């Protein structure tokens, strides 16, 4: 079976030791997003983008929307473990 370019990049980074396993794992979890969504309960009244979310309401959190948002993660479709490197 032939490796995809993402798999090849992961393998190269792990074998070369340039970034280390923890960064590759964090980026894999962001890139793939195993848990697509979850519900959370507002513990207090919150205003978000001009909308009131009253205490006790259930809020739907869609992780993929966050993990693929270029305002949160620049170039979100690129597999880049170095984005989690806090030493840079």
Written overview of the protein:
This is Cytochrome P450. Residues 1-20 form the signal peptide. Pfam families: p450. With 88 residues, the protein is an alpha+beta fold. It folds into two domains: 1-33 and 68-88, no CATH class; 35-62, no CATH class. Strand 2 (46-48) and strand 3 form a beta hairpin. It has a two-stranded antiparallel ribbon. It is elongated and about 50 Å long. It is built from three helices and four strands, in the order H-H-E-E-E-E-H.
Provide a short characterization of the protein structure:
By secondary structure, the protein is α+β, with helices and mostly antiparallel strands. The protein folds into two domains: 1-33 and 68-88, no CATH class; 35-62, no CATH class. Helix content is 33%, strand content 18%.
Percentage beta strand: 15-25%
Order of helices and strands: HHEEEEH
> Which sequence of strands runs across the widest sheet?
1-4
Radius of gyration of CA atoms, rounded to a whole number: 17 Å
Backbone shape: elongated
Low-confidence stretches: none
Give me the number of helical elements.
3
State the end-to-end CA separation: 36 Å
**Major beta sheet summary:** 2 strands, antiparallel
Mean pLDDT: 86
How many runs of DSSP E, i.e. beta strands?
Answer: 4
Secondary-structure map with pairings?
Blueprint: H1 5-16, H2 21-32, E1 37-41, E2 46-48, E3 51-53, E4 58-62, H3 63-67
Antiparallel strand pairs: 1-4, 2-3
Family: Belongs to the cytochrome P450 family.
Signal peptide: 1-20
InterPro entries: Cyt_P450 (IPR001128), Cyt_P450_B (IPR002397), Cyt_P450_sf (IPR036396)
């Amino acid at each position: 079976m032939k490796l995809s370019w993402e798999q090849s990049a992961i393998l190269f980074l792990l074998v070369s030791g340039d970034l280390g396993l923890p960064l590759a794992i964090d980026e894999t979890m962001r890139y793939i997003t195993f848990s697509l969504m979850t519900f959370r309960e507002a513990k207090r009244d919150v205003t978000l983008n001009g909308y009131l979310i009253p205490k006790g309401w259930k809020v739907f959190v869609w992780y993929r929307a966050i993990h693929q948002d270029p305002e949160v993660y620049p170039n979100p479709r690129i597999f880049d473990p170095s984005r989690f490197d806090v030493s840079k």
